[in-house]
Specification:
TPR-like_helical_dom_sf; signal; 341 residues; single chain; 15 helices; palmitate; cell outer membrane; mainly alpha; membrane; two-stranded antiparallel ribbon
Length: 341
């Protein structure tokens, strides 16, 4: 990691810590004043202050005209304040209390977004982290939450974006399973590797990882001496994925060295320390496709579906639609690479 990255991360962490406390909410503010000030904070991207005012509004006027709207906007404020757990908790509470609310689909959507962005935190913005190798817990949660939205509200304005994210998340989960399969190959756990490859093939059809799953099966079966299974898997791989990284000029090339070919340091540390860098073809097609898909999809999300562009808050009685403020970025946003958006 470069020193400038460390310095930048440390500076941003310090600024975040200093600004996270927020201002004290005046106890004499009326319900409408609290709501108006919370809206101003949201528009100014002062999400910490907005959270404080929305919580105060709900606690002081639990049966007021803005109570439900405050609960809905609190989800968004927590999400933008980089507090995914608080956002998910707020969304779950809103869904439980207002299952028939006209904007409950927005709560489901923000709940899925909170889990979706949970792994893409501060470090992921500055460091070249491979998301396919990280713990998939948040990805599974996000997939399930978007699936609930699509299932319960198929005609929601957020359903198309949720479906697109589900495709990405499914590919991400499949690529993670491929990495686990290669981990088993490195540890000579060939039965486990074959089972993991078969799991990818059977459960993640139509994802880029299927070819890599077949390659894992071929290699594991070859190591186990199960030539018939290895040959049938290889034929399937050649027929359907001729460009897979494991095929060189039509011939299968194992991607993991056998135990005897590893260095003494790798053997002594059970593979925890490898002396040689992985060859270029060690990057799976699944992980490359997933990363590219995320980058492309992030650019293609319709602007009107992004939470920061929600502008439907109305201040009339009994009307409750979300307002996410302006989409204009300030000079501070550019200087901090969008960290505090």
């Amino acid at each position: 990691m470069q020193v400038k990255h460390l310095l930048l991360i440390a500076t941003l962490a310090f600024v975040t810590a200093c600004s996270s406390k927020g201002e004290k909410v005046d106890e004499n503010l009326s319900e409408s004043q609290l709501y108006q000030q919370a809206q101003e904070d949201l528009n100014n991207k002062s999400y910490t202050n907005a959270v404080a005012k929305l919580k105060a509004l709900e606690s002081r006027y639990p049966f007021g005209r803005y109570a439900e709207q405050a609960q809905l906007e609190l989800i968004y404020a927590n999400y933008k304040n980089m507090e995914p757990e608080a956002a998910r908790a707020s969304a779950e509470r809103f869904i439980r209390l207002h299952p028939q609310h006209p904007n409950v689909d927005y709560a489901y959507y923000l709940k899925g977004l909170a889990s979706f962005d949970q792994d893409r935190g501060l470090l992921a913005r500055f460091l070249p982290l491979d998301m396919t190798k990280r713990d998939p817990g948040a990805a599974r949660d996000s997939f399930n939450e978007f699936a609930q939205l699509v299932s319960r509200y198929p005609n929601s304005r957020y359903a198309p974006d949720a479906k697109a994210r589900m495709i990405y998340l499914r590919n991400l989960l499949a690529a993670y399973e491929v990495h686990v399969g290669h981990y088993y190959l490195k540890r000579q756990a060939y039965v486990a590797a074959a089972n993991r490859g078969r799991y990818v093939v059977e459960n993640f059809q139509e994802t880029p990882a299927v070819g890599d799953g077949l390659a894992i099966m071929v290699e594991a079966y070859q190591r186990l001496g199960l030539n018939d299974l290895a040959d049938s898997s290889l034929e399937t791989l050649k027929a359907n994925y001729p460009d897979n990284a494991s095929l060189k000029d039509g011939q299968f090339v194992p991607r993991e060295d056998e135990a005897d070919n590893r260095s003494w340091l790798a053997k002594a540390t059970l593979g925890l320390i490898e002396t040689n860098d992985a060859p270029p073809h060690m990057e799976t097609q699944a992980s490359k496709d997933v990363i590219k898909q995320y980058e492309d999809a992030e650019q293609q999300i319709p602007a009107e579906l992004k939470p920061e562009n929600q502008s439907e808050v109305q201040e009339e009685q009994h009307e409750s639609e979300g307002n996410a403020g302006s989409s204009d970025r300030s000079w501070f946003s550019y200087m901090t690479f969008g960290i505090f958006d």
